[in-house]
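Follow-up to my post from last week.
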Amino acid sequence: MSLFIFSIRHTIIQYPNNRIVQLIITVIILFLSFSITNVYLIISKKENNLLLSLMSRSKLRNIKQFQALLTNLFIFIILSIFCIIPTSKHQLLVLFVVIIILILLALFQGMISLYNPTITSQINKNNKFNHSYNFIVSLTIQSLIIRDILFIWRKNRPKLFLYIFMLLLINLLILSVSNRNDLINLYRVGFFIQSSVILRYIFSFPSENDLNFLRLYPTYSFKTLISEFIFWIGFTLIYFGFLSALYFFFLHNISPHFLLIFFLIHLFLICYIILIRLAYLESKALRIISFLLIVLPLTIPFVVYNCIRRLKC
Amino acid sequence: MLKLININKQYGSQEVLKNLHLKIQKGELLGLIGPNGAGKTTLFNCILSNLDYQGKILINEMLNSDYLKINRNRIVYLPEELFIYNFLTGMEFVNFILNMHNISFRKVENKILLLFELFDLIDYKNRLIKYYSFGMKRKVSLIAALVQRPEVMLLDEPVFGVDARSIIVFKRLLKQLSQKGVTIIMSTHVIDVIKNLCDSVAILYDKHIVVYEKLHKIGINEIERKYLELVGSNIDSLINEFESI
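User reply:
Got it. Predicted complex:
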């Protein structure tokens, strides 16, 4: 271990401009900022208990999200200033992407840190319950997002690992190309392949959870739609944000136009798939047909109409 | 409190409810009985505005659709078909349902733990629901329903598959809620369940309410007799015919 650390230290000192070195530094910075934030959140459990006697759990959750975001950002910026000073537009772009990722992670971090009911088991009771659910996203939407995260982790884990392995393999194959020109051409294709893998996962994501839920709570269809948007768009931004940063270190000139077009297409397709899922929750066949016929713009009004019909419930 | 005026509901050409009238007072605990397919679940779905129907349903003198827009959290519906997430623990599921009703877990935490204890589930509260038996899953649903403080409760076959101890607990808790002013409609196939529990009983038969009686006036045995008269008039002849084949 000490040899490994020594060799990294040696590499960093000897080759400060090497892209591998930059990559290592960025990973270390990210790792440090998340670790420190997590340590802080764990230490502040007692503080949670104290604060919970003064305010509602939902309010504290929102504060924690904000706190996690600020701590992450602060530590990241401080460490970045000392280690990587952005010298080009592309580096600024990477910094911007990483900041977006940090914001999204902070939201999830804050949510999950207070979700487990046992955390609140030793708390003094405060009967002055304060309804403040709409600071960032409502309690209902947060619960629906956490439900999806727990579903993936507890019930869909083998599939998740399979997808992660596939995506890793695609990236390793692309990055193993030694010719830089080939790499530039390949990474664009790679992005679209990975986009289709992720879209396939979203498309095949079981609809039973939402179907059963909406049978009991049909009036929550809009909140379900919003939670699905937030969850999948957040997931996509985190994944492709990291991927863009990774490729940037190997290529140095990732085209911002390409990224913009790619993200727009990908986000449009995600939104469309989510609309299809909600419009045809009961029928897998209709979902598949609607998606396959996306090339015919005629199907879009049908999907939107059915979605609106459900939202009116 | 809850008025159903001339309710008609059709599925295609099949009439399920026809000219149905029912008036339930605040705090009343009504047992709704009827044969399979009589339309009990459909009636609940009409009250919840989940289905289109003809007629008028008033909750607190407001149209049900208007009432639900602002007070969805004040109506608890426990469907016959279990709604439960197997990948959550019992405690997490109750928390999830509470969040849907904008109720703070912290505010009712002690109550939840007591309910888990009353329903003999305390040792399983942090176990994934996928390891629960059918009855245990039903009990978690009951806990999620009972922990809320609604104005109206619609319970569709709530104790199906639940053990005797839990039925006793459930009946006593339901009685308490009713005394606190919660209006409850409970559908069941088992007449014994409504014995010593409900204030009134309604029989849904032939698409409408054919009998509505206060139990202190008429008694459960009379209700049972009336019910058998309606649905079981040909039982003896059919059994005889079956034995003779």
